[in-house]
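Thread: Modeling a multi-component assembly for a lab meeting

Hi all, long-time lurker, first post. My supervisor asked me to bring a structural picture of a complex we are working on to next week's group meeting, and I have zero experience with this. I have the sequence lines for every component (251 residues in total). Could someone generate the structure of the whole assembly? Inputs are pasted exactly as I received them:
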Amino acid sequence: MTIHEIVSLVQGKILCGNLGKEDSVEYCFASDLMSDVLTVCRCDFMLITGLSNVQSIRTAEMSDLKYVLLVRGKTPPQEMIDLAKESGIVLIMSPYSMFKASGILYQAGLKGVY
Amino acid sequence: MDLSFQIQGGDFTSAGTASSQVRRTLKELGVDASVIKRVVVALYEAEVNIVAHAYRGLITAEIKPDQVFMKLIDEGPGIADIEKAMTPGFSTASQEVREMGFGAGMGLPNICRNADVFNIHSVPGKGTTVEITIQIK
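Re: Modeling a multi-component assembly
Sure thing. I ran the full set together rather than chain by chain. Output:
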């Protein structure tokens, strides 16, 4: 699924990052617990989180992820956006809850990592 | 190549800076992406542990063609029962640490899982030393 489709499905807004038309992702992992994210071996997934601070971006960076979807309509602090820019991570925000965003994306075909 | 970093306890804004620098260096050296991920996930968990639990610490990373050796020495309360601390889900993290997305009790198990060799030594009231070795294939 392309990132543009994902953004549209969750009524999202791209906060930073360079996004091409071909940017896409097949898997998702939703968590507010960063150590849980760090247990996932693969790196071809999008992180859905409600954790609105620099550590969610750091975790995405260490996990080699390119896309982070911030849910619950949280406005991230500027330092979080700056770190995402520096790390080359596309940061998207959605007004939906984690459950709703995950449900919509799962129904649309995105897969869980396990 | 040797890298070293001073870590300040409680400084969550900077937590991960050392791991990020090691990641960048390994990428520049052309190390395999799956190996880099194991190194930085283990290091990041250990770095966050210093920020979350200790007063201050020192991280050194020794990068050789065949392996990465990382040593993290902290001054802090130490760990009274290492076996318990290694149990997945066990955590003594503060509310502040949990608000930063950590404290799920997966830190040490995560380090152990990614390391080829993992050693931990702690003196309660003094501090903890963690050694992580990961082979570069």
